[in-house]
Amino acid sequence: MPLSPPALELRGLTKRYDDGTSAVESFDLTVHDGAFFGLLGPNGAGKTTVISAVCNLIRVTAGEVLVFGRPAASLEARGWVGLAEQDINLDRFLTVEETLVYHGGYFGMGRDEAVVRAGEMIDIFDLRAKTRVRTPKLSGGMRRRLLLARALMHRPRLVILDEPTAGVDFELRGELWRYIERLHDAGTTILLTTHYLEEAEELCEEIALIRGGRLIARDTADGLRESYDADTLADVYVKAMAA
Amino acid sequence: MSGAQGLRWLARRETLRVTRLWTQTVLAPVVASMLFILVFGLSLGSRIREIGGLPYEVFIVPGLITMAMVQAAYNNNSSTIFQARNDRYINDVLSAPMHPWQVNLGYNVGGLVRSLAIGLALLALAVPLTGVGVEKPLVLAVAVLLGLVLFGALGTVAGIFANTFDNITFVVNIVILPLAFLGGVFYSVEMLPSPWEELSHFNPVFYLVNAVRHGFFGTSDVSVWLSLGVTAALALPAYAWSQYLFTSGRRLKA
Ligand SMILES: Nc1ncnc2c1ncn2[C@@H]1O[C@H](COP(=O)(O)OP(=O)(O)OP(=O)(O)O)[C@@H](O)[C@H]1O
Ligand SMILES: [Mg+2]
Can you say how many angstroms the Cα of residue B45 is from the centroid of all Cα atoms in its chain? Predict the structure, then answer.
C-alpha cells in the first residue's frame, strides 16, 4: 500500500510577531490524511497562529509547513485547504450567493460549477431565504453559517475550523457536526479548535494540547485520559494546563 | 492550478464594487469635473486669453480629465484594499491559490475600469461642449495608461500602509491635489514667472498632464517623449513597490 503523505505536517514552526510576541516556538505536528483532529488550548496558546501559518496568512519566522506533502505556500496546497476563521470576515459588498460563488472562483472554479455548488451550500446551511441579501444584513449566527459554507465551498481536502461553533444556535450546532462528520466519513481531514471540550471529546479522534506556543500532549481522547489519570477530557485539560 | 481563474474572479469582484457603487465611484467625479469645465472654462474662459492658441475652455479639458482619472485610480485601489484589510476579508484572497502578481493585478482592475468609465464619460460630455478633439489617440492612450498605473499603484501602497481611512485622504490633500494644481492643469507653466516655471519641472504631474495634452492637441510645453519617459520612469517603480508588498506579505500578513 502506498503511503499517503499526511494532511498536515509542521516541522519546527516558529512565529514571532513584529511586536516581539513569540506566539509559537519550534512546533512539530503531524495530522494524518483523513483524521478528525482537535487542537485545544487556552486563549493565546497559539492555535490561530498555527492555523494562519498553514493558510498563508502570516509570515512564518522559521520552520516548514507541508499540506499533503506540498509546501503550504504552493498554489496546489492552498487549493486543498478550506478555512473558517475565528473572526468572521465576510466581504461586505457581496450577497450570500456571491460570497460563495466568488470564493469558488478565487479557488479556481468556473461560473457554472460555482453556482451549482453555492446552491448546495446555501441549502445545507439553511440560508435559502437570504440568498440575495448582502452580508452586513445577516444576523451573527447566519454570518457564521456563511463563513462555514464558504470554507467548504471548493471541496477542500483539509478543512480547518477555528472555533466554528461560537455564537451558533443549538440547532445548527447539531446540524453542523452531523455534516462535518459526513465529510469526515467521506475522507476529508478535519482540523478543529474549540473551547467546548465535550464537543472535542465526542468528535475528535486525536487531540493536541497546546499552551504558550508549545505542544504539551498529543494522543487520542482515551490515551490522554489514561496518561493524565482523568475521567473526562475536561479533567485532562485542567491537569495538563496546570502542569 | 494556475490562478488564472482566481485572477478573473478578483477582477470581476473589483469591477462589481465599482458598478454597484457607481453614483459614488463614477457619477460624482464626473459631475465634479464637469463643474470645473463649466465654471472655469465657459464662464472665466471668455475673460482669459487663449493659451498656446487654444481657447481656455479647451485648454483645461485634458488636465481635468487626467486628474479625475488618476484620482479615481488612487482612490479606488486605496479604499478597496483598506476595506479588505480592515474587515480582514482580504484573507479569503490571500489564502486562495493565486500568485502575488495575480492578486496585485486583480486589485488594479477596479481602478482601471472606474477611471476609464470616468474618462470616457467626460470625453463624451466635453467634446460637444467645448469642441475639444483628440489629435494623437495612441499618445493619449499610452499617457493615460502610464498615469493610471502610477496612481493606481500609489493607491495600492497607500491602502496597504494606511492605519485609518484618514491616512488615505491625507495623501490626496497633502500630495496629490497640490501637485495637480501646480502641475499645469489650469495654466501653461510657461506663463509662470521664474523660478516657478523651473520648479514645475520637478513636479511629476506636470509631465503626465503634458503627455495627455499632447495626445489631445498634438502639442505641449515639453517634448512628448520626455513627458512619457518621466511618467513611465515613475510608474514602473511604483508598480514594483506595490508588487513587492504583495509578494513579501509585508503589512498584509502579520
Ligand atoms: N497580529 C498579532 N500581532 C502580535 N501578536 C499577536 C498577533 N496575533 C496574535 N498574537 C499573539 O500571539 C499569541 C497567540 O495568539 P493566537 O491568536 O494564536 O492564540 P489562540 O490560541 O488562537 O487564542 P484564542 O483561544 O484566544 O483564539 C497571543 O499572545 C497573541 O496576543
Ligand atoms: Mg484563536
Answer: 25
A145 inside domain: no
- Residue B253 domain flag: no
Test B97 with A108 for CB contact under 8 angstroms: yes
Helices (H) and strands (E) in chain B, counts: 12, 0
Global pTM reads 0.94
Phi and psi at A168, nearest 5°, equal -105, 140
Give the number of beta-carbon pairs within 8 Å between A and B: 91
Question: Which residues 180-209 in chain B show a CB within 8 A of chain A?
Answer: none
C-alpha cell at B184: 499645469
Domain range enclosing A47: 8-89+159-242
Residue A87 Cβ contacting ligand 1 at under 6 Å: no
What's the DSSP call for residue A4?
Answer: P
**β-bridge pairing A8-16 and A62-67:** antiparallel
What is the rounded distance in angstroms from the CA atom of residue A188 to the CA atom of residue B212?
A: 57
Work out how many domains chain B is built from and give that number. 1
Q: Is residue A226 part of a domain?
A: yes
**Cα-Cα end-to-end distance for chain A:** 41
| Number of separate domains in chain A | 1
Taking the centre of ligand 1 as the mean of its atom positions, its distance from the CA of residue A225, in whole angstroms, is 28
Q: Which residues of A167-197 are buried (b: 16+ CB within 10 A; e: fewer)?
A: ebeeebeebbbeebeebbeeebbbbbbbeeb
* Within a domain: B254: no
The predicted-structure confidence for A183-199, as pLDDT tens digits, reads as follows 999 999 999 999 989 88
CA B193, CA B2: separation in Å to the nearest integer? 56
Grid coordinates standing for A129?
Answer: 431565504
Euclidean distance between CA atoms A125 and A84, whole angstroms: 14
Locate A186 and state its grid cell: 467521506
8 Å CB contact between B156 and B108:
yes
Read off the C-alpha cell for A206. Answer: 486525536
* ipTM of the complex model: 0.94
The 10s digit of each residue's pLDDT in A73-90 is 999 999 999 999 999 999
In a domain, A54, yes or no: yes
Could you say which of A58, A91, A98 has the minimum Cβ distance to residue B253?
A: A58
| Nearest atom (ligand 1) to Cα of A86 | 27
Antiparallel, parallel or unpaired: β A36-40 and A189-193: parallel
